[in-house]
Design goal:
Lipocalin, 8-stranded antiparallel β-barrel
Length: 309
């Protein structure tokens, strides 16, 4: 009976003597993460996926891998700003269970070494952080690993996977059978004028620190100003339309609230008439597409008619 006890003692001693690398343990302990093992490593995000392996949502939102990050110390991270075209140093606050905050974002380290980094996005509500995670995962590769080991570049690694293609095909088929099942096109529908009487201007989203340099509104809610001169009357209407895969317009709904149903009905009638009489005749419509698949999508239009100009 003494031999098994001796073996067990030796095994315990051996395990205690082994030095584990200073990375995330993920064995139930609430460890305070240290980035010292990867200080100075330049990482580029190559994928941002949900738990099911997709980078697209049912609404057509694509979770693009955009971050480039370098951990300067345990208290500072350098993150690339695409709008400023340079890296900016941000304070880094560490929490327990491998959670940290930088650039106004809460993240949890799932795996980390000098070749790769996997982070999970964390939801926060005021002063409360939901440590259960958002089930949205960011995968980074070190720039040196991409260049000298994989012998490729980030543009190749960032390409949507086969799951995304199958998913978007299913969404496209449904939207093309019924345009009311439209979803946001990654290359959004576009309007252009065919007449000197009509001017078209597309709204452009600007990314900044407050929205994490997010410009997805450009394709999630494509919005156009349309100005018509020598119109039959002075008017201004705001409404959304479906653009089907053939580039045809279908009225959806007004973009303003109403105090009564009769006012709303009259607004819809008049704005629909403007769409049918002006927009369909003087605009060229290019349908939206995602992963090179044409499909129905939705756009917003603010149209102004001016007489005598």
């Amino acid at each position: 009976m003494k031999l098994p006890v001796l073996l067990l003692t030796l095994l315990i001693f051996f395990n205690l003597a082994c030095k584990h690398p200073p990375v995330v343990k993920h064995n139930g302990e609430k460890d305070l993460i240290s980035f010292k093992p990867v200080w100075g490593v330049a990482y580029s995000e190559i994928s941002r996926l949900t738990a099911n392996g997709l980078s697209f949502t049912d609404y057509g939102y694509q979770m693009e891998p955009q971050w480039r990050i370098n951990f300067v110390s345990n208290d500072s991270a350098s993150i690339y700003s695409p709008t400023k075209g340079k890296f900016i140093n941000f304070p880094l606050t560490r929490g327990y269970d491998s959670i940290f905050n930088t650039a106004r974002t809460w993240l949890k380290v799932k795996a980390m070494n000098r070749d790769s980094l996997k982070l999970e996005m964390i939801n926060s509500y005021g002063d409360t952080v939901d440590t259960r995670g958002e089930k949205l995962y960011m995968t980074f590769y070190a720039d040196d690993y991409i260049k000298n080991t994989l012998h490729t570049d980030t543009s190749v690694l960032k390409r949507p996977n086969r799951k995304d293609s199958v998913f978007i095909r299913a969404l496209s088929d449904a939207a093309n059978k019924d345009y009311t099942k439209a979803f946001a096109a990654r290359q959004p529908a576009f309007l252009s004028s065919t007449s000197p009487r009509v001017k078209v201007k597309k709204w452009v989203a600007e990314g900044d620190l407050l929205n994490h340099f997010d410009t997805s509104d450009d394709y999630m809610h494509p919005t156009f100003d349309v100005a018509i001169s020598k119109a039959h009357a002075d008017f201004y209407y705001s409404f959304s339309v479906y653009i089907d895969s053939d580039g045809q317009m279908h009225y959806n709904q007004p973009l303003i609230p109403f105090l009564g149903q009769s006012l709303k009905d009259n607004y819809i009638r008049q704005s629909t008439a403007v769409m049918n009489s002006y927009l369909k005749h003087y605009l060229k419509v290019t349908p939206g597409k995602t992963l090179n698949m044409l499909h129905a999508s939705e756009i917003n239009i603010h149209v102004q008619g001016i007489t005598g100009i």
